[in-house]
């Protein structure tokens, strides 16, 4: 693929991104970075000048397209700076080889001085001082000083073997599934970014419709909900959606709330994401799980207010809701993209049910346990096509990283930052001394099979709800879902996560030792 093809591929990815439609789709976010990375991975490094010119053109186009989002811009700038550096070194090396009459490496360097003209795309230069001809840029002499190539030893100059990497997708090599984070030019493998960075959401048009979700059976929540809905209408002139139960509660208070909307049938319910700009939750973590479960596809940004006991996913203080909502609606806001797992139950007895049965999306975890049976579970676990292990115990938890601080933690799993893409594989009371929990990469598909010789059926539950029986021969298949749950941060992903484990779990709290033996107060 030529660099010019890359530029259009990059633009196509970005113009279709669902960020522009107000929804956050992890695949689209990845695509925007992927465009640049693909470009970087495939652009010929030992090219002619034409290639270099084409390359800089392509990079400019992609970088321009990426400027549409702050995240994309930051990424494009970082990549462009790095590539400009490599471009300069490469060009200087070409010239050096040409000057020394070394044509064995297939280089076609310039005939003029080794200074590189500015790319002219607004990116800063890398700070090299010109010592050769007074033009802006880097000279081959500097490359030599940097030790990239030594003219005194050019006869001994060794070229590293060239190679390409490709990524396997379900047993097949595929360029489309090439990972976007590793570059391998000249045999040096580097990683640009290892997981998604802090994401910032900036409104291009102000939010107009808010869905307020509340935990049931709480007077405090009911009072706060009425107050907030009134404020959102009177001060912000917003459209408000609530659940039918909440609408009735509000109307029983005052007919002022007549403007509040709800949904009637399933179709209106499943179209909710097309109307709602922002979801506000009033409750604990369970209310955030509830909110996530309402959206089977894209999820609007959620602002979770803490009115529960622990509140790992609810960083906002309800006492200061006006200030918080003001700042969220003004933006920009840091968000955590919480990955979800997509689970399918595959029945042995009804093979066609697979097509009909809706996948279930979980934000915390899917648990496969022994239910009311007093027998050990007997679960065969596969990761893609590899057999992993057999779970004989109380069961198994397949958890997201957001769910790592919930049931999985109680079963001995690690706590994992919610932006780390991975699937936790945590046994529940395994009857074995060596069954330690695992964390698997995000791209795998996990299959939990109840074998025909199992003494009893197993039970699957999804975020602690909706129990389904898995009879002998049935299986549960689980992989990362395409639709994450964007939750607003009070500080940022990392700050909020650390605060939640410190405040919620008192993680590693201990009196500090002092040098003189006295206890610090
Ligand atoms: N032994 C256990 O720890 C255990 C057992 C069953 C269910 N659970 C958890 O309860 C969740 C359902 O929550 P619910 O509120 O509907 O039920 P719930 O009302 O029974 O509350 C469960 C508790 O888990 C906490 N919790 C939920 N999600 C969390 C997260 N991501 N990080 C840290 N703590 C979290 C909640 O704050 C609450 O205190 C399930 O997804 C499961 O993770 C835990
Ligand atoms: N809008 C809702 N409709 C029905 N059930 C809900 C709704 N919101 C929350 N729930 C359920 O209510 C239960 C309690 O909610 P939540 O976890 O938010 O409160 P909590 O238990 O007081 O707080 P915490 O989870 O911090 O201990 C959960 O099981 C949750 O699934």
From TrEMBL:
It catalyses: NAD(+) + ATP = ADP + NADP(+) + H(+). It comes from Trapa natans (Water chestnut). GO terms for biological process: NAD+ metabolic process; NADP+ biosynthetic process. It comes from the Eukaryota. This is NAD(+) kinase. GO terms for molecular function: ATP binding; NAD+ kinase activity. Its EC number is 2.7.1.23. Residues 73-100 form a coiled coil. InterPro entries: ATP-NAD_kinase_N, ATP-NAD_kinase_PpnK-typ_C, NAD/diacylglycerol_kinase_sf, NADK. It holds the Pfam family NAD_kinase. Gene3D superfamilies: Probable inorganic polyphosphate/atp-NAD kinase, domain 1, Probable inorganic polyphosphate/atp-NAD kinase, domain 2. SUPFAM superfamilies: NAD kinase/diacylglycerol kinase-like.
């Amino acid at each position: 693929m030529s660099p010019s093809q890359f530029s259009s591929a990059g633009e196509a990815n970005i113009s279709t991104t669902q960020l522009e439609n107000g929804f956050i789709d992890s695949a689209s976010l990845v695509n925007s970075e992927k465009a640049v990375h693909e470009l970087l991975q495939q652009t010929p490094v030992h090219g002619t000048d034409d290639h270099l010119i084409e390359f800089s053109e392509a990079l400019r186009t992609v970088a321009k397209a990426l400027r549409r989002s702050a995240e994309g811009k930051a990424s494009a700038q970082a990549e462009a700076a790095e590539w400009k550096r490599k471009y300069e070194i490469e060009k200087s090396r070409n010239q050096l080889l040409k000057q020394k009459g070394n044509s064995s490496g297939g280089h076609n360097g310039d005939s003029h001085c080794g200074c590189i003209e500015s790319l002219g795309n607004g990116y800063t230069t890398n700070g090299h001082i010109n010592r050769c001809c007074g033009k802006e840029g880097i000279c081959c002499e500097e490359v030599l000083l940097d030790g990239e190539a030594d003219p005194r030893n050019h006869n001994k100059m060794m070229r590293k073997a060239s190679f390409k990497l490709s990524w396997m997708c379900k047993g097949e090599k595929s360029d489309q599934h090439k990972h976007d984070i590793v570059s391998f030019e000249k045999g040096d493998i580097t990683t640009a970014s290892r997981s998604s960075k802090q994401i910032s959401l900036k409104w291009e048009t102000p939010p107009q419709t808010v869905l307020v979700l509340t935990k049931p059976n709480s007077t405090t929540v009911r009072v706060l909900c009425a107050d907030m809905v009134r404020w959102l209408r009177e001060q912000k002139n917003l459209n408000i959606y609530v659940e039918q139960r909440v609408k009735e509660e509000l109307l029983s208070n005052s007919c002022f709330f007549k403007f509040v909307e709800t949904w009637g049938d399933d179709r209106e319910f499943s179209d909710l994401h097309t109307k709602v700009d922002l979801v506000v939750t009033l409750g604990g973590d369970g209310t955030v799980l509830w909110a996530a479960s309402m959206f089977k596809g894209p999820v609007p940004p959620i602002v979770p207010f803490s009115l529960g006991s622990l509140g790992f996913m609810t960083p906002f203080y309800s006492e200061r809701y006006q200030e918080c909502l003001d700042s969220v609606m003004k933006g920009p806001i840091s968000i955590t993209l919480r990955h979800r797992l997509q689970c399918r139950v595959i029945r042995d007895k009804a093979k066609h049910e697979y097509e009909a049965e809706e996948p279930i999306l979980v934000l915390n975890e899917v648990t496969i346990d022994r239910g009311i049976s007093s027998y050990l579970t007997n679960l065969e676990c596969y990761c893609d096509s590899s057999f992993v292990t057999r779970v004989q115990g109380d069961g198994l938890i397949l958890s997201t990283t957001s769910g790592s601080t919930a049931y999985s933690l109680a079963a001995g799993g690690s706590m994992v930052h919610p932006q780390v893409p991975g699937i936790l594989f945590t046994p529940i009371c395994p009857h074995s001394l060596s069954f330690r929990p695992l964390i698997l990469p995000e791209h795998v598909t996990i299959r939990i099979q109840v074998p025909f010789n199992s003494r009893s059926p197993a039970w699957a539950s999804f975020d602690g709800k909706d129990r389904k029986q898995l009879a002998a021969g049935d299986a549960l298949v689980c992989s990362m879902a395409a639709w994450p749950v964007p939750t607003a941060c009070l500080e940022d992903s990392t700050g909020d996560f650390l605060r939640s484990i410190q405040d919620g779990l008192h993680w590693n709290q201990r009196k500090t030792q002092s040098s003189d033996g006295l206890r610090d107060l």
